[in-house]
Amino acid sequence: MMQEKVVRPLSGLLALVVLLGGMAINLMLFLRTAQSNDPGGMAGAAVLFVLIMIALGGFVLVQPNESSVLTLFGRYSGTVKEAGFWWVNPFNKKRRLTLRTRNFETAKLKVNDANGNPIEIGAIVVWRVTDTAEAMFEVDDYENYVKVQSESAVRALASSYPYDAHTTGEAALSSHTAEVAANLMQQLSDRLAKAGVEVREARISHLAYAPEIAQAMLQRQQASAIIAARYKIVEGAVGMVENALEMLAQKNILHLDDERKAAMVSNLLVVLCGERGSQPVLNTGTLYT
């Protein structure tokens, strides 16, 4: 792979002073040879003028967080990264390449998650060029390369995780955002490294079920939430009943046989787990009538 070579060329201000001096000398030489009618001197002045004009094409202005990639007759000769006004070989071809951090948001891609459910997913990628030689010469169009590889990485990510976690500890797109973002960033870094691109941040920007199953999945989520809530209610109710029986036994308030304990547990669970308020029934007889 081609490696970046950073060069620091000649100061543009110094070169400008030299060329302006050369132009003044050339003008004086041309006037002197014209007065003396010296063909050889006029030819030399003309050649010097052409050389100065060619040398003027060597100036390059590099802005902050930009670079200029230099190629000489088809061969890479270096990259100017330091901001300033410079002079390089005028026969070098100069191509400007920005080093600024850039954002890219993928389109909303329709893919299948790890469970085969169709979902819509999109991501934001923050990236910048770090190796100008690789970005310029290893891939045809590094900006398009970033877009295509980013969408490919997002598709691979979506197929690696389910949309929702259905078991305890299972990583999912909707719940494990940090883990998913780290995985996406790693995939992008591996894919874009050959293009001289550094991924600085990657995260999911859009995540939803596909429209054709969105309603069914919403009902499924609601059912899962209801089941989880019921489980918590029953778990709490059982703990309260157990605590009540222990307190009755410890304080010798009431002695119940197994049948009456079962009836008491049943009544307490109905009261504690019911959705509506229970209606009390007063027993005016004995406990066993």
Could you describe the 3D structure shown?
By secondary structure, the chain is of the alpha+beta class. It has helices spanning 12-36, 39-55, 132-137, 142-158, 177-192, 211-250, 258-273; strands at residues 10-11, 59-62, 66-72, 75-80, 84-87, 92-98, 102-105, 109-112, 118-129, 197-209. It has seven helices and ten strands. The strands form three sheets. Strands 7, 8, 9 and 10 form a four-stranded antiparallel beta sheet that branches. α4 (142-158) runs antiparallel to α5 (177-192). The chain is rod-shaped. The termini are far apart. The model has no long low-confidence stretch (mean pLDDT 83).
- Count of alpha and pi helical runs: 7
- Going by helix content, strand content and strand pairing, the class is alpha+beta
Low-confidence stretches: none
Question: Based on DSSP secondary structure assignment, what is the total number of beta strands?
Answer: 10
Q: Sum up the overall morphology in one term.
A: rod-shaped
Largest sheet: 4 strands, antiparallel
* Percent range of helical residues: 40-55%
Ends distance: 93 Å
Radius of gyration: 39 Å
Residues in β-strands, percent = 15-25%
Query: What sequence of helices (H) and strands (E) makes up the elements?
Result: EHHEEEEEEEEHHHEHH
